[in-house]
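Example (one chain per record):
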Amino acid sequence: MSPISSSILSFSRFCQFLQALHFSDNDTTNYSENRMLKLGNVMTVVLKNFQNLILAGKNLAVDESLLKFKGRLLFRQYIPTKRARFGIKFFIISDSSTNFIINMIPYQGKKTQISEELVKNFGYGGAVVLSLMDPYLNSNRIVFIDNYFSSPKLTKELFEKKTGVVGTVRKNRKGMPHMAGKLKAGDIQVFSCHFMMVER
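Predicted structure:
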């Protein structure tokens, strides 16, 4: 806490407020469909303000992030490669020029707020990208993604919606060109079509 805060409110008093802080009515709210409703509409309002106040640039980036949390939570994740290791996983999209988060989806297991139709057509990673990019499609932007999200089918869908893609891709993804054998040092292999170029 800052010196000004501590002069007005003691730490123990702050902890008492924190224990009583509540954003939704347990009697009227159905948490079975969306567990993040415990936060009420706080996250929705914050994200809407970000999107209204921040003019996103040409380059956007999609990735996953882990918010450190060690308490008891049904959808808490353990990711050993992340610095926090334990916490709440978020799929986020940020503006590369300002580094501001402009949209995010909290991971809640089967209750994650992502269209089942998108998951069926583009896989989980592709559905995440399309959900996060929805307000920014058809605007000639470029999205940067890693191999968890990318696939030829997603690339084609984004190309048709005037959105470019840059990233890595797993060679066993459906629609990828056949890449046999090992390359010699210094050699490269390039495959291309009207919507995608893959370099190995």
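Caption: The radius of gyration is 21 Å.
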